[in-house]
Specification:
CATH class of the largest domain: Mainly Alpha
Distance between the termini: 37 Å
Helix content: 40-55%
Radius of gyration: 18 Å
Largest sheet: 3 strands, antiparallel
Number of helices: 6
Strand order of the largest sheet: 1-2-3
Structural class: mainly alpha
Shape: elongated
Number of strands: 6
Order of helices and strands: EEEHEHHEEHHH
Number of domains: 2
Length: about 180
């Protein structure tokens, strides 16, 4: 499964894009992906999905959105067995994602590999790594949620993109 947040939020499985539901359900996924492999408290999720004054039904609605995402992400899940992707863990939820399965994690790894190559004066390899990292970008990170409070995570990825672009330019000037 491939999770994409370097652009509009998408999940791909077997060469096809998964239907992730409505805006609030996708916002929940986006929040969890910016905090991949970390528990996000239910109260915090409610604050971020319903900025301002959440409705009294927010807790129940959050559970409905979690259920919808689980159906999309684990369509063959058997009742009575634990979920493996979107997991309930006190005091909230976490999404389990391998570094290779999240475009933002792959981006950060490739940028780090590019920096390492630059420090070793392997400018061709550095340029390749930086270009591969930049190739993961499909637009503004978390583009569908630019007006949401949790969007600051997207800004951090944007800074990484600028650093990678600068490094590519630097590697061109320095040469092999």
């Amino acid at each position: 499964m491939e999770f994409r947040i370097l652009g509009p939020v998408e999940v791909w499985e077997g060469g096809r894009s998964l239907h992730l539901g409505g805006a609030k359900q996708r916002a929940l996924l986006a929040i969890l992906l910016t905090q991949a492999n970390q528990v996000v408290a239910t109260d915090r999720l409610i604050e971020l999905v319903w900025p301002g004054e959440p409705p009294e039904t927010a807790g129940h609605s959050l559970q409905v959105y979690v259920s919808g995402l689980r159906k999309a992400l684990e369509p063959t899940h058997s009742a009575g067995t634990p979920h493996t992707v979107l997991v309930s863990q006190a005091p909230g939820y976490l999404i389990r994602v391998g570094d290779e399965d999240l475009d933002a994690s792959r981006f950060q790894q490739l940028v780090e590999e590019g920096r390492q190559a630059m420090s070793e004066r392997a400018s061709d390899l550095a340029t390749t790594k930086f270009r591969e990292a930049l190739g993961l970008w499909r637009g503004v990170p978390l583009a569908d949620f630019a007006s949401q409070p949790f969007y600051t995570e997207g800004c951090c990825f944007g800074l990484g993109c600028l650093l990678a672009l600068d490094a590519v330019q630097h590697s061109r000037r320095v040469g092999p």
